[in-house]
Amino acid sequence: MFDTIFHNFERFLAAILLFLIAVVAVISVAELCFVLYKDLTSPLGLFLGLDELFEVFGMFLMVLIAIELMSSIYMYMKDKSVHVELMLLIAITALTRKVVIMDKATSDAMTMFGMAALLGTLIGGYYLVKRSGEPRPHSGERR
User: Fold this and answer.
1) For the chain, which residues make up each domain, given as ranges?
2) Long-range contacts of the stretch 103-106 (C-beta < 8 A, 24+)
3) How many other C-beta atoms can be found within 10 angstroms of the C-beta atom of residue 86?
4) Do 102 and 65 contact (CB within 8 A), yes or no?
5) Which residues 6+ apart lie within 8 Å of 119 measured at CB?
6) Any residues with CB less than 8 A from the CB of 17 and at least 6 apart, and which?
7) Is 85 within 8 Å of 130 (Cβ atoms)?
8) Cβ–Cβ under 8 Å, residues 125 and 87
9) What pTM value is reported for the model?
């Protein structure tokens, strides 16, 4: 009985999270459209400055992260398992967004080295997870 109550409560919380992330994704897309419209109708016209490009790319990545999180929560609700590959992709995308929007002029070298090491570790982990899921060749076959 307790298991059923806990399972229902867990599904309820996951559904709320899914709804909230969907709301954030819709608001982010609306904000992205507004920023693009504002930047494209500025006196410079179709030419976006470097700051505007970084802002737009950062917002695109934020929407992509929200979509990936929605997918992750949906898969969790459906399969009752956490997909490590998807979690690593979300982390890689989030760190990439941070690198894109980071102010390189005020960031110190150790922060950049740390982010590079973290990104390399995440990519290595993703590679290993993907590789572990590949079918292995038989002993007589070559790769």
Assistant:
1) 2-132
2) none
3) 16
4) no
5) 92, 95, 96, 99
6) 73
7) yes
8) no
9) 0.74
